[in-house]
Design brief:
The protein has 286 residues and is of the alpha/beta class. It folds into 2 domains: 10-41, no CATH class; 44-285, Rossmann fold. 39% of the residues lie in helices and 13% in strands. It contains 9 helices and 8 strands. It has an 8-stranded mixed sheet with strand order 3-2-1-4-5-8-7-6, sandwiched between helices. α3 (59-76) packs across α5 (90-103), α5 (90-103) packs parallel to α6 and α8 (183-196) packs across α9. It is globular. The protein starts with 9 loop residues before the first helix and ends in a 12-residue tail after the last strand.
Length: 286
């Protein structure tokens, strides 16, 4: 809620920046130009409410988990150590924390590890929650800085066109965290997970502010960044049959087998759960 007085606080300043950036992006889009947009401030009350409904949990449970993860995040100093931009930020990490706390996955697979900043958070969640989850990371080069080989496995392999055999059928079904931009890889992971029907999938960078509806890069271009726009919403729109990747329909939809929700976090974290893991919305979540 915006204060009625003109007190200059970080959140007030962030809202002013957000209003200006959204207005500039809107003008650019009308002129046929793309500009990325990452909000400075999010509505964390709405995020918790949306997550509670999605997971079928009461608001009090989500609030308690939020406080629990906030304490862990502060104790580990993630914001100062690893930053909150172009990586898993606090709100997005909390969603993974809630998924791990709710479902206690035997396996957590990360595709697109790079330096291991997100992996560090996942490893610490596992320890905090007392889980025995096997953490397996896939990337094409070893740039890891934030975890040791004893804490998680790093597999140097491109899993494009081989996700089912290399990941889904190779480990006990659990949670996949996908943070990589190539179109073919995104498409293969999402289609394989939907066909398999056992795994939960979380995908980073699904915010509308990172979606360029007029992508000019070829789909086989490996160098995809926020400056060009990313493919995540395009892939989800293609697979789920939504004509416009910027459509709000893409943020909350169901099929006969799965539920997709794109949560309102800075980068936009999408979660796809098989229906047996995604219960009917709980009114108490509000």
């Amino acid at each position: 809620m915006i204060c009625s007085t003109l007190m200059y606080t970080p959140s007030t300043a962030g809202r002013v920046v957000d209003l200006w950036t959204r207005a500039r992006r809107a003008v650019a889009m009308r002129l046929g130009r793309y500009e990325p947009y990452l909000p400075q401030v999010i509505d964390d009350g709405r995020l918790r409410s949306d997550l509670g409904r999605y997971l079928g949990l009461p608001a009090a449970t989500i609030a308690a988990w939020w406080d629990e993860y906030a304490a862990l995040s502060r104790a580990q100093g993630y914001a100062a150590r690893m930053g909150e931009r172009k990586t898993l930020c606090f709100e997005e990490a909390f969603i993974l924390f809630a998924l791990m706390r709710r479902y206690r996955p035997p396996t957590v697979v990360e595709i697109g590890t790079q330096y291991g900043r997100s992996t560090r958070r996942i490893i610490d969640m596992r320890r905090h929650l007392g889980l025995a989850s096997r953490v397996v990371c896939f990337d094409v080069v070893d740039q890891v800085r934030f975890f040791e080989p004893s804490e998680a496995e790093l597999v140097l392999r491109d899993v494009t066109d081989d996700v089912a055999a290399t990941v889904l059928h190779a480990y006990p079904a659990g949670l996949i965290y996908l943070d990589a931009h190539p179109y073919a890889l995104l498409q293969d992971v999402v289609r394989a997970v939907l066909a398999d029907g056992r795994w939960a999938l979380a995908i980073h960078d699904c915010a509308a502010g990172l979606c360029n509806p007029r992508m000019t890069l070829p789909r086989d271009e490996p160098e995809v960044t926020s400056r060009s726009g990313v493919w995540e919403r395009h892939v989800l729109a293609d697979i789920f049959g939504v004509p416009d990747p910027l459509s709000a329909r893409l943020d909350d939809l169901e099929t006969a087998s799965h539920r997709l929700r794109v949560f309102g976090t800075p980068h936009g974290l999408a979660v796809i759960l098989p229906r047996q893991l995604a219960p009917a919305p709980d009114p108490a979540a509000d």
